[in-house]
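Quick one, C-alpha cells below:
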C-alpha cells in the first residue's frame, strides 16, 4: 500500500540507530522516525502509526506527534508567523504549516485564527494550507435526513447566522434564531439537519427537532438527577451556555422539561436549584 503524505500511516520498523528508527516506506524507501518521537521499548519488527510530512529540508520524515489536522481536512489554525512569502500556521508539529499569499482570502495576521483546508500542492509536493475553502467542499447532493445529528466546524459569521462545515464535507447554515449559545469561528459542535433544500443547501439547528425532544429530555433530566444524588444546581436562572455545555439542549428545552417534571411532582424547586421529591 502506498504511503500517504500528510496523513497517518501504519509502518513497520526496519532498522534502529542512535538517532532514531527507520520505517519501511515501500516505494519511498526507508523513512526516519527521529529518536525523540520513538516510543519506549520500540524495536525492529514493530508496527507504528505515524504521521508523515516533509522536514525543513524537504525530506520525508515520520513523527508520533498528532497534528491538529491532516491532508484532506478542514481546521481553524492560528498564525504563528508571517514572512514575505505567506503565513505559517501552528498545526501541532515542529515545522509550521505554510499558507502562501495566493491561497489567502485576505492577508493573514500573526496571532489570528483562520479556517483552512490542508492539501498537498501538486507542483511542489509540499503540504500546504489554503483559506479558499469553498472550492474544496463537496458538490455532491448531501445524504442527510432531517433530524440527523452531525459534527460541524463553525466557519464564518454571516448576516443570517453562521456558516458551518459539516462532517468535513459539506457547507451548512445555522440561522441566528436556531442558535442559543455563544459561537465563534473554529468552534466544533454537534448540530442537527433541519432540512436539505432542493438545491442541496443544508439548514442546521442546534438541537433535534420535533415535539418529542422536550419529553425525551425530561426523562434524561430525571436520570441525571438520580445519578447526581437527587439534586442539581441547574435551574431557571442558569446561563444558556452552561445548560448547553452540560446537557446539550437549549435553556428553553431545559425549562420546559423541568416544568414537566415539576407538574408530575417528581421534582421540587429549591433556592440552590432542583431536587427529586422524596418518593423518588
Amino acid at each position: 500500500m502506498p504511503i500517504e503524505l500528510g496523513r497517518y500511516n501504519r509502518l513497520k520498523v526496519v532498522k534502529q540507530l542512535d538517532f532514531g528508527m527507520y520505517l519501511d516506506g515501500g516505494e519511498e524507501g526507508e523513512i526516519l522516525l527521529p529518536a525523540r518521537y520513538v516510543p519506549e521499548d520500540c524495536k525492529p519488527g514493530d508496527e507504528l502509526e505515524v504521521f508523515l510530512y516533509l522536514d525543513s529540508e524537504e525530506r520525508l520524515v515520520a513523527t508520533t506527534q498528532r497534528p491538529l489536522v491532516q491532508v484532506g481536512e478542514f481546521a481553524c489554525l492560528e498564525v504563528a508567523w508571517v514572512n514575505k512569502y505567506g503565513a505559517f500556521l501552528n498545526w501541532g508539529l515542529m515545522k509550521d504549516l505554510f499558507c502562501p499569499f495566493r491561497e489567502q482570502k485576505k492577508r493573514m495576521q500573526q496571532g489570528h485564527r483562520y479556517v483552512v483546508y490542508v492539501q498537498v500542492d501538486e507542483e511542489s509536493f509540499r503540504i500546504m494550507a489554503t483559506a479558499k475553502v469553498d472550492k474544496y467542499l463537496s458538490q455532491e447532493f448531501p445524504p442527510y435526513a432531517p433530524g440527523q445529528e452531525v459534527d460541524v466546524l463553525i466557519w464564518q459569521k454571516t448576516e443570517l447566522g453562521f456558516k458551518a462545515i459539516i462532517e468535513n464535507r459539506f457547507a451548512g447554515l445555522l440561522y441566528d434564531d436556531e442558535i442559543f449559545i455563544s459561537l465563534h469561528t473554529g468552534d466544533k459542535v454537534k448540530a442537527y439537519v433541519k432540512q436539505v433544500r432542493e438545491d442541496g443547501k443544508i439548514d442546521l439547528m442546534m438541537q433535534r427537532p420535533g415535539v418529542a425532544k422536550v419529553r425525551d429530555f425530561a426523562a434524561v433530566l430525571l436520570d441525571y438527577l438520580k445519578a447526581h444524588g437527587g439534586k442539581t444546581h441547574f435551574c431557571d436562572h442558569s446561563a444558556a451556555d452552561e445548560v448547553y455545555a452540560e446537557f446539550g439542549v437549549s435553556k428553553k428545552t431545559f425549562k420546559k422539561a423541568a416544568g414537566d417534571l415539576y407538574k408530575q411532582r417528581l421534582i421540587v424547586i429549591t433556592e440552590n436549584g432542583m431536587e427529586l421529591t422524596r418518593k423518588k
